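Before a colleague's protein record goes any further, I have to sign it off. Thanks in advance; the entry in question is below:
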Amino acid sequence: TCLADLKRIADAEAAVQPKSKDSQCKIAEPVSLTATKGKNPVAFSAELTLDCPFALALAQFTNETIQPLAQYHLGSTVQQLQTGTGYTCRRRNNLATGKLSEHAFGNAIDIVGFKQKDKSSFEVRKASLLEPKQARFQRALRKAACGTFTTVLGPGSNAAHATHLHFDLGRSGKKNPYRICD
């Protein structure tokens, strides 16, 4: 039912399991996501291969949270989310060893910038490098994302996240669930 629910609010299709050299890098329910639907649809800058529950959460968050926050803080809705990776088989922070990143399960997204309906755009960076309204939007978006996603990282979290927002539905802490909102 996840894919049926996703198709109601986004342009999405079932996808094949991405090929990987590491057998641990698997997506439980792979889907391809290209845009959200609705009053103010949002395109993704690249086709994303994600796990269906994560894609559904991302599409809902985009329609119900990003768009209203953009309208309020920026005076224009978002037309395109400039995204980095969805699925990629790698370790956290691209290190050679350690735990697999949530990207390895199609359970994460990196947002690197926003193109607005009014044709303006900006890239994610630390607040002091943004226009005041962009900084307010980015702060509000990060705070709101903490209610939907289990891990929210961005500029100021660490050097690896200085130029993008990372959202995931992390699998860590199953016995003692926790959120990382930094």
